[in-house]
Design brief:
This protein is 39% helix and 19% strand. It contains eleven helices and eight strands. Keywords: Hydrolase.
């Protein structure tokens, strides 16, 4: 088993501090993998995936809490409809600068997958590869149905306690940033297509066949529109979180592909 050094970081931005962690093997090689979390996520909710990813690939893995999430500072406002693309020039840019990354691999889950696409499009010379896990490329009816169901579940007594364990006093903002934005008319016509068409690097699109927030049309769109070579894998008997529900297969696919 490869020894991995875990370190915590606090990254200054004009809107407040971002929290990040890095997992560095004894002798790392290749570009670091930078993880972008989902709509309710944070560093802690990746659980042991970053550690196992560092061990499997031999690369440094970096994960950070976006502004408003986890251990990062509170977000000062509501999310603009451009928030997916904005992350590449805001929080992600601060992470690149803090770690001095000249090259990187962008890996994102769910909406973080869309952000990873935008990062690959924004930094074509630095981004060596792109990995999306259960990413959405447009506002699909199935996505909205899943969000409305989750919204009803979080309305039940005590349900918000789960979010508060990871986001503290920011938990209600986190939930509404997800549900209010995606269910709004202003966001209804959002699409990832223009950014996908700017991606030049190799791309791996992973998606669970039983994903409750999007069908296989999303990874198919990613693989079809990126300009670099692409690989698509649908994971059987897997829902929206392959790195938890199908961890060994997900790690093996990434390890094999990234070589």
């Amino acid at each position: 088993m490869t020894d991995v050094h875990l370190q915590s970081h606090h990254i200054a931005t004009p809107q407040g501090l971002l929290f990040a962690q890095s997992w560095t093997p004894e002798q790392p090689h290749g570009a670091a993998l930078v993880l972008l979390h989902d709509s309710l996520g944070c560093v802690a909710l990746w659980r042991d995936f970053p550690l196992q990813l560092a061990q499997a690939t031999g690369r440094t893995v970096i994960a950070y809490d976006r502004l408003g999430f986890g251990a990062s500072a509170a977000h000062p406002s509501t999310l603009p409809t451009s928030f997916v693309a904005d992350e590449a020039r805001q929080g992600f840019a601060a992470v690149l600068a803090h770690f001095g990354l000249q090259t990187f691999v962008a890996l994102g889950h769910s909406v973080g997958g869309g952000m990873a696409v935008c990062c690959a499009a924004t930094y074509p010379r630095q981004c060596q590869a792109l990995i999306t896990i259960a990413a959405q490329t447009f506002v699909q009816k199935r996505t909205l149905t899943g969000i409305r169901q989750a919204q009803a579940e979080f309305a039940q007594p005590g349900a918000m306690d789960r979010l508060a364990r990871y986001h503290g006093a920011k938990a209600h903002w986190v939930l509404h940033a997800w549900t209010d934005t995606w269910l709004s008319q202003a966001f209804a016509h959002w699409r990832l297509d223009p950014f996908l068409q700017q991606v030049q690097c190799p791309t791996l699109a992973l998606h669970g066949e039983l994903d409750e927030y999007g069908t296989a049309i999303h990874p198919q769109t990613i693989a079809a529109l990126v300009q670099g070579p692409s690989s698509l894998h649908l994971l059987a008997d897997c829902g929206h979180v392959p790195h938890k529900q199908a961890l060994p297969q997900t790690l093996d696919l990434i390890k094999t592909w990234i070589k």
